[in-house]
Amino acid sequence: MxxxxxxxCGGESSERDVSLASGRSVARALLDRRHEVTLxxxxxxxxxxxxxxxxxxxxxxxxxxxxxxSLSDRHQRRQRMHAALTGGPVLxxxxxxxxxxxxxxxxxxxxxHVQALLEMAGVRFTGAGSAAxxxxxxxxxxxxxxxxxxxxxxxxxxxxxxxxxxxxEVRRLLAGGPVVVKPVADGSSVSVHRxxxxxxxxxxAAEVRPDGNELMAEPYLPGREFTVGVVGDQALPVVEIELTxxxxxxxxxxxPGAVSEVCPAQxxxxxxxxxxxxSLRAHQALGFGEDAYSRTDFRCDADGExxxxxxxxxxxxxxxxxxxxxxxxxxxxxxDLIQRVMDxxxx
Length: 347
What we know:
The protein is α+β, with helices and mostly antiparallel strands.
């Protein structure tokens, strides 16, 4: 056996189920590479899900549902998560591991909270550090940083429905055509809406008002959609997401066959190279170093010009996720990808 690895997955976010599936996929890959693995969900009442597992042990499957899990118990999960990562047997396990593999998505697992706690505890982990995760997580601030670095982004308006009526800037965007409204800090396209009318806008606002979450409105881009993974300093082949729905939402992302994903994308070489260069630029502008990985999403406007939608600090690692598909396009197996992510953190 090579290393003792603890995989952190699950958590308290709307992407909890995706994370649990990613964690199990990562566990199988690490066992394939002869690592010892312990699977931990620090938000669960019984945090150790499996392990220590030895090479040859089986890992049960986890199926992602069509809808994200309820957040009704989010406060309790966050309490458990904070307690587990700041003291007691879970923190002892993390400190005793040679590496912690972060398979979280969304919430505290991707916005920098967990990374900051692990940094303070002196625990080595995979992926970007707390500062880069925080920079990428807030879509409004991230797009401002990327725009300043020369990465093309669309106009955006931040909006907190709980503060009152729809701002005039949002109404102005909608007067020019359809808009996309989404949480300014969330992942897996949870609660993403295409809005075509003021009535729809009011309905979306009413749905989120009880939580007081900040939203971002931006013009709807009618063109093709692409994504590019970056591992260390290498941009992977471009993936095209061929949609049958207006937006690439949660259901489309995690149900096999819901969309067509093509890698490498059938685009001119210079266009693919441009997307890869922009992905590397976005990766670096947000503070991701050569020890981190990310996935940058693009959508084209009516003229075919690509606009950066967001950068994902901890992209999905399930069997149907986009980063593993891009890795396959580069000639890597899934265990190759997971090992490379580990190697970035152990240089």
